[in-house]
């Protein structure tokens, strides 16, 4: 009950535009005023997508680890304040961190490191995971979990959140396109191929057109045949690769790539072609459905 109140209050304060320090001060006063004798830890960050400036504050929570694209780590010099609910008058402050494209952010709880306070995630663990994971966040997360010293504490929450800052929003909007394909659209695959070809031509990416169209045909056909829903197709050009994503309202949970017993919808010839030709591919939850995506190097 109390945690729900804090989450609702935090969202409301964030919607009002409060910086992280102000948000923690307001939430702290709320918790103290509830007279529950409870406390909570929190790390709050706000990112300006237009500039890449992130402001972050923390209340009894480990600060995030921020790895630059070149492998350097940000020195936050962040004041880790007491948990919320301990001192009604504590003045939580935030610091600003400019993020460069490709920056990797790791937010984690004490429980992820086995419990206790004052421990920090080892940057070497992050570096090793990045070097051996082809840059995919899912793989990086799996390796960080495997390599982190100390089993997660059963007495505390164990959570790891990885984020990657790609580029300013204005740049992203220039290189992201979307197409809605109605379910059972007999011309859906043809329209998707025409859509992809047009934008690859506009972006001067003709060298990947043939492979991209083949893979696109497979994932869109798979979606239209098996999902029985509209298809949300998205193209995104990144500095070093192209990502194509097909999302549906298929209620079946996303499955791991290559796991035994996976259903024929994901394990047939089409997905084998995607696996063979794409530099990376996978599937993940998307709202009430799931998304299948692939990437090609540029």
What is shown here, in short?
This protein is 34% helix and 24% strand. With 298 residues, the protein is an alpha+beta fold. 28% of the residues are buried.
Layout of strands and helices, then pairs:
Elements: H1 2-15, H2 20-33, E1 42-48, E2 53-59, E3 65-67, E4 80-81, E5 95-98, E6 103-108, H3 123-131, H4 137-147, E7 160-165, H5 169-174, E8 176-181, H6 188-202, H7 209-226, E9 231-237, E10 241-248, H8 264-267, H9 269-277, E11 280-286, E12 289-297
Parallel strand pairs: 2-4
Antiparallel strand pairs: 1-2, 2-5, 3-6, 6-7, 8-9, 9-10, 10-12, 11-12
Helix pairs in contact: 1-2, 3-4, 6-7, 7-9
Task: Describe the 3D structure.
Strands 8-9-10-12-11 form a five-stranded antiparallel β-sheet. Strands 1, 2, 4 and 5 form a four-stranded mixed β-sheet that branches. About 5% of the residues have low confidence. The chain has nine helices and twelve strands. The radius of gyration is 22 Å and the shape is elongated. A hairpin with a 4-residue loop joins strand 1 and strand 2. It starts with a helix and ends with a strand. The longest helix is centred in the C-terminal third of the chain and has 18 residues. The protein folds into two domains: 164 residues, Phosphatase 2c, domain 1; 123 residues, Heat Shock Protein 90 (2-Layer Sandwich). With 298 residues, it is α+β, with helices and mostly antiparallel strands. InterPro entries: Bact_Sigma-Reg (IPR052016), HATPase_C_sf (IPR036890), HATPase_dom (IPR003594), PPM-type-like_dom_sf (IPR036457), PPM-type_phosphatase-like_dom (IPR001932). Keywords: Hydrolase. This is PPM-type phosphatase domain-containing protein. Pfam families: HATPase_c_2, SpoIIE. GO terms for molecular function: phosphatase activity.
